[in-house]
Amino acid sequence: MALLLLLLFLQAPFYAQAQKNITLGSILTIQGPNTSWVSPSGEFAFGFRPLDTNTSVYFLAIWFNNIATKTVAWCAKTDKPVSVPSGSQLQLTHGGVLSLQDPAGMEIWNPRVTNINHASMLDTGNFVLYGKDGSIKWESFASPTDTILPSQVLVKGTVLRSRLMENDYSDGRFVLSVQVDGNLRFYTVAVLASSLYDPPYWDSKTGGNGSSLVFNTSGGIYYTSNSGEQLKITSATLDSPADFYHRATLDTDGVFRQYVYPRKAAQSNGWNMQWRIIDLLPRDFCKVVAGEIGSGACGFNSYCSFNINKSVDCQCPPSYSFIDNERRYKGCKQDFAPHSCDLDEAESIQQFHLVPMNNINWPFSDYERYNPIGEDSCQKLCLTDCFCVAAVHYGSTCWKKRSPLSNGISGDIVGSVFLKVPRTENPGSQFSSDSSTWKKERRYWILGSSLVLGGSVLVIIFLISLLCFGSYCTISRKKTAQPQSMSYEALPLREFTYKEIEKATDGFREELGSGASGIVYKGQLQDEFRTSIAVKRIDKMLPETEKEFAIEVQTIGRTFHRNLVRLLGFCGEGRERLLVYELMTNGSLNGFLFCGTRPTWNLRVQVALGVARGLLYLHEECNTQIIHCDIKPQNILLDENLVAKISDFGLAKLLRTNQTQTNTGIRGTRGYVAPEWFKNIGITSKVDIYSFGVILLETVCCRRNVELETDDEEQAILTYWANDCYRSGRLDLLVEGDDEAIFNMKKVERFVAVALWCLQEEPTMRPTMLKVTQMLDGSVTIPTPPDPSSFISSLQ
């Protein structure tokens, strides 16, 4: 390796190797005379960069200093980019330590080396810490982020990780890995879990013979073997490489691109003074990034095309739109109600049709295949199947595809692809093609907390009549807007007969559990899939409750989200009130956290994020805003894959527009109820956020919020104890004995900080669920949560 590095530098005609020592005691500040340490030629700088133009938050980085864009080549990271507020400083201490500290003097980052004698920002773009004997103690080249520079070598075990977005330096969806087995591989990544999807989308296939990835000083990038052979990674060359700045970056879309930038306008050769792509890998990106697990190059329900300007373009199919237009990797959502399994064949054909998707396909997500069959029959099979969202016909074979569609690609596609969408001319449709119009008219429905949803047709019709006379129990976002009535036929629910449910449960033989309003039974539908179900049998149905029962069937029946327990149908024959749900095979979060072995840290993180996404959907994304009012571990259920799903949308009080509080029927549970339930103020979605804060702490610590039988009274109430630990800088006490959590202390600190924001006594100080999810996944900076006496509401 030493010989290889020597050869690299001997080839270097255009990078000066002079260095300017940074001595012990040197300090960088965000505002002041010393904001960065610059290389001798001035071409690179190491110091503070703002996260964006409208922020007072900075991160520690290395950038190209002599160009207008100040392109970042490296940034300091722990489990996320290290960000600090104004007033922070970086110091090379007299004790020989490089330390980044916030305004309060708390250390945020250091490279974990001691006995430093001096540092240098080299003209190669490498920031180096030296010992007294001149040896390298640490260097940025050995800890790359998403970029490599000329003279840089990536040895076995080194990775590049793409950014999440162009202006978000968090770890993204793609990894370039120089593996210890001798292969160079590119992987897609599950962002939150950081697990690699296998197989890789590019592989050097060098076996045990590969050695290191080299960016030589003449602009060539190649992968070396143990025997000295070179596998070219990029092949473009320049006549005068010394006239250009060079970098190679694993970009946010997963493509490894080599860029050049003219050092002077005379070398621009007709293009603007900006970075220009001279080569890239892989060259047919959309086709190679595909796998049965994961969404592929773009998010779920979208499709990928590779533009003439060598960039990846993610697009949504007709009647779909991006979940987040700024973060398109999250995929696309349907702008219409899903196909109800309660529709018969004629109704399905009346409400939906198939549109051809020319040269677009989703090669995975198949769940059914027919052969031999014609194209018309293939389309009809999909059109009348509530599970089918797309169909492919090729030759004499038909494939049905389920949601979500994955690995979408645009190009030369073999066969005919058809996408199921609603008929826009259908007068009975409850959704327009522009979903934003519907969302502007959505109302706040405060719903409660028992697992009771459903009602008979007559009750629902009666309720609709009530709506017209103003007795509908909602809080309107627009006071002048009139409630929009919905017919029973529009609900995506099945009305079961009592005999069907009795047969499915084998005469209500096997109990799963019981609650205040009834017993839950295990069952199995007599359909082609032998669907496992949980049936809630309501045994205390008061006349006043009947209306609320019907409202919930109508409201919750429209919701459909990965992190909500799905209501399949109901029965309202006579005095029977039965609710049919998908069966959750792994019980509740209560059992998951508090009974037996502590779950792994990664599983707990996924559960917490799942609950957050479910609440985000209820509060901000579904057509009617829903406030759950009883979020607690018993009401979070886990499916066979340990995906968290919110349940128990029950019989709580509904608030009318002239109400400001509820004074009866509070269905919250001790330890999870927000303070405003007991005050003379209105109830909003912030009650759920408070409860989520409690659950988040319980998930981090694997203990109940209230444990009165404890030796230490200060630890009896988890929310109080967590606040004390956070203020005193002793979060390690919260996760004592949990080695995995201790190893992930940065994330523990992040989750606890989010929880403390959620637990603010004043509702307006609590963040929205959108802000909560952004803080949890690290996409936004988390301000220090105020003490309980504080009245700061900066997150609103």
UniProtKB/TrEMBL annotation:
Coiled-coil region: none
Gene Ontology cellular-component terms listed: membrane
What does the record give under GO molecular function?
ATP binding; carbohydrate binding; protein kinase activity; protein serine/threonine kinase activity
Secretion signal, residue range per the UniProt entry:
1-18
Where is the protein found, in the record's own terms?
Membrane
Keywords linked to the UniProt accession: ATP-binding, Disulfide bond, EGF-like domain, Glycoprotein, Kinase, Lectin, Membrane, Nucleotide-binding, Receptor, Serine/threonine-protein kinase, Signal, Transferase, Transmembrane, Transmembrane helix
Membrane association type: Single-pass type I membrane protein
Q: What is its EC number?
A: 2.7.11.1
Q: What positions does the entry give for ATP binding?
A: K536
Catalytic activity line of the entry? L-threonyl-[protein] + ATP = O-phospho-L-threonyl-[protein] + ADP + H(+); L-seryl-[protein] + ATP = O-phospho-L-seryl-[protein] + ADP + H(+)
The UniProt transmembrane annotation reads 444-469
In Swiss-Prot or TrEMBL terms, this protein is called Receptor-like serine/threonine-protein kinase
Gene name linked to the record? LOC100821320
